[in-house]
Design goal:
The structure is a homodimer. By secondary structure, chain A is of the alpha/beta class. Helices cover 36% and strands 24% of the residues of chain A. Chains A, B: GO terms for molecular function: kinase activity.
Chain lengths: 299, 299
């Protein structure tokens, strides 16, 4: 391909949509960010097409990649359910290709971030790797034998492993899911329940770790819950490296170090994985979408 | 290939080795079974080569497949550890190809059985499927996007998911693994602990289900433990079908029906899988090894 070819990478969220024109070295030449446009509850597919067309104007755009939250069939490019976009059975790939005339791939946002971390990030070069962003929700992308699993859209829901049977009720209806103890909102909620004091978020709890035993207890419960879930995932998948991302991982070694120690202590015969922080941070979705764009261009 | 070509399928166990000459329709034309030959604790690789050569004599043998228990790197054909064969880092594929001059593939026994069930057995046609033999141990083979996972040898250890934290100590060193409640030996052990009465095996417990509340309690605990482990596996893998095999599944619907009900009751947003009994029974390893033999012949 010619050196001046580009792809468009789009990371679709419930609050905003981030898009970028990306060159062959995965550099963002131009970026755009807009609030997600809606008709009632339903996010507007046309906005994504407009972003692709606007960024591509005047450039040789040979492909595009789009990362979407929810239950996504990557192979069909079909969004089965995306609660915070109001989408059900949206044939996103077909609609966007029709509206942009650009070859395009659609993928679940966590698997897109995983693709980026496994290809150019913290999991680079590991055939068996796992990427777990810990944010508003918790999910995992798993690469086994060099392929990211779960194109049918149903795999990787590690946030809904039961780690505390009989515990708090999760949004999914079950009790004691990992998300009830370790997703970002759980930190502030559990700290408030424990102390009666309000705190804004997980970073707020992290900031109190050196001085406040209640913050330490909330943090410890989250680390133990994450270790319980990862122990199960390691037993079933056997990754050589686990990459932790998402907003809660912004705490860095305050999260990674005790989680690594607790997980490794629990493993017996299982392969002992490296546990590391994600390398790409908030850019994982965009970088992964750009990689998809180059895949779409080739196919 | 010519219609008279054959492959040799070998299923290596700690007690005996089963081998067969198999035609293109996966029919066993001739079978052999021998006690596993050992030097001290170490099983003799030469016996496997002899079986391949003996069955192949006078036939056009174009490939062979060998199923082995333990931690097996399928891609390298390397047995990392097989406790009940006394093997550590045995380059089985290379040694057998040198001794037989037949193209050959080596695979973990459960993944070999899974390959058979996913290709011609109860999971036929399902791109996302799971095979879980419940016998002396419990492990799983998982197919995602049409490929059986875990060629590096570390995946699928569902028997060592913790389903009863603080429960009985497992052979692996952890407490409360699935195997402590639901592997074949656990049925007789738990029945004896509960009643002081000796019973030979899981089939013995199954035979008492209609008359003996203690047998029912032991059975129920095993079903609940299996459901807990499968709930986690479904959340992480999202299979559309779960195929239950191994000796304990010989109980048929006495196991499958309550397990199916308990698992489906626990799932929330997850894809609801079919839960069925394996179709190939004790032949799964041999059929899978034959499929590997035909793969080796093609490659």
């Amino acid at each position: 391909m010619a050196a001046d070819q580009h792809v468009v990478a789009v990371d679709v969220g419930g609050t905003s949509i981030k898009a970028a024109l990306v060159d062959r070295d995965l550099r963002a030449v131009e970026t755009l960010r807009e609030p997600t446009r809606r008709t009632g509850e339903v996010a507007d597919v046309g906005q994504i097409a407009e972003l692709v067309n606007r960024l591509g104007a005047g450039h040789d755009v040979v492909g595009a990649g789009v990362a979407v939250p929810g239950v996504v069939d990557d192979e069909l490019g079909l969004v089965r359910t995306a609660v915070n976009l109001g989408w059900h059975d949206v044939p996103l790939r077909a609609e966007l290709e029709a509206a942009t005339s650009v070859p395009l791939l659609v993928r679940h946002d966590v698997r897109t971030g995983g693709l980026a971390e496994f290809t150019v990030g913290a999991g680079k070069g590991a055939p068996d790797a796992m990427f777990m962003p810990v944010g508003t929700g918790i999910a995992a992308a798993v690469q086994v034998d060099g392929s990211v699993l779960g194109a049918s859209g149903y795999a990787g829901e590690i946030g809904h492993l039961i780690v505390d049977p009989g515990g708090a009720t999760c949004g999914c209806g079950a009790r004691g899911c990992l998300e009830t103890l370790a997703a970002a909102p759980a930190f502030a909620r559990r700290y408030a329940e424990r102390t009666g004091r309000t705190i804004t978020d997980a970073a707020g709890v992290a900031g109190l770790l050196s001085t406040d035993p209640d913050a330490r207890a909330v943090w410890r419960d989250a680390v133990d819950a994450l270790a319980t879930a990862l122990q199960a995932a390691v037993t079933l998948f056997g990754p050589s490296i686990i990459v932790i991302g998402g907003g809660v991982a912004e705490a860095g070694e305050a999260l990674i170090a005790p989680l690594r120690e607790e997980l490794l202590n629990r493993l017996q015969f299982q392969r002992k994985p490296e546990v590391v922080r994600a390398a790409l941070g908030q850019d994982a979705g965009r970088v992964g979408a750009a990689l998809l764009g180059w895949q779409a261009a080739k196919s």
